[in-house]
Structure formats: C-alpha cells, structure tokens
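Pair request: fold both.
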Amino acid sequence: MTSHDHHNHGHDHGNSASGSCGGHAPKTEDLAATSGDDVTECLVMAGTPVIKSQAEAEGLYRDYQGQRYWFCCAACGPLFDADPDRYANVA
C-alpha cells in the first residue's frame, strides 16, 4: 500500500480549503496527551488538527516568509507550494 491509497475514499484536497480532512487528523488520545502549544490547524484542510512535532518528524511542513506552517498529510504540502499566499494569509 502506498501512502496515498487512502485518498481513494472521496477525499479531495483540491476543491476547498474549508473542507474536512478524512483520516488525517491525529488520534484523539494523541491530541489529549499533547501540549496545546504543539497543536495547530492545517491551513490547507481547515479544521484538521495537526500535532506540530509529529508533522515535523514526517516532513509535513513548510517555511514561508519567516513563518512555519504544518500540514495534516503529504498531499497538503504541494497544494500549499502552488499558492502559499492563499493559505498563509488565512492564519
């Protein structure tokens, strides 16, 4: 199985930054055990929580104009790269 096989379940990153991200959110128990400072929201898939330390360990982040942005999955990085101002100006 590749890391993108789960995208075949009606999950679409391309239509809207306000959609929900199916299957990429951290586990509830991981969120509960994580400091609030280590949790943010994916800007590409708005509303999807991201544990910063996990995202960094997996390379799911970008640095843009002196700011770091973390993502819920590998598909979000290229979408951010294609139009970083669209997402960076949401924060």
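--- second member of the pair ---
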Amino acid sequence: MPQYTSNMDLYKVDLETDGNSTFNIKTMLNDNWDKIDSKYDEQEGRIRGNSEVVNEVKEDVGDKSELKTEDKSSLVGAVNEVSEGLADIVNEVSNNTTQIAEKENILNADQKRKITLSNSDPSGGVNGDIWIKYNS
C-alpha cells in the first residue's frame, strides 16, 4: 500500500507492498511534480505579496540615506541622536533661564518692571509697570 508525505501529500512507493507493481509514471512522478510545482507557485505568490508589502513600508518610512542625522545605521540610532540633541537644547534653555534669573536678582526694584496681561482694568502696581488689557 503506498504512503504519502506528511507536508505535500506526495506519493511514496512502499517497497514491501508495491515492490512488484508496475512503475506508473503518472502516479509516481507526474502527480508529485504537479504538487511540487503548485506548492512552489503558492510560495512564490506569498513572496511577491510580501515583497509588495515591504516596498510599501519602505515608501512610508523613507530611505535612511535621506536622514539629516549623522547616525544612519538604524532608525533607532537616528531617533536617539535627535533625542540627545533635544536634551542638549533643553539643558541650554534651562541654563539660560537660570542665568537670566540670577541677573534679574541683582537689579534694583526701580529697575524691574512688571508686565501684566488681563481682561480686566488695571489695578495696583507701580509707575513703569505695563498692563495689557485684552478682550476675551
């Protein structure tokens, strides 16, 4: 009695039971070749489909060579480079803010002016203060 392969159901001759049978080219070869060819075509279709998906993703993501970062080895590396750059900017702004506050502290009271934004009429303050009234 013949056997069949588990994955592609290809015909296999059982030598003990089929050993004396006439060699049947259609059953023993051609049908198996057709199954292999069909499976190949199916896999080829999957590969073509996956290739199209990969190309769409590449279009959406873009080409790494177009990155304006120095690190183009990977998207993660480029993002990390940008993140580090932003951290440097945040630190610089923080340092500038601290320096401004320190300089403001050395000003005399008559050298400081208060600027107020409000939708109400001015109240309080000292000469030289600025009150900007806006409509809400």
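Observation on the second member. The two ends are 92 Å apart (CA to CA).
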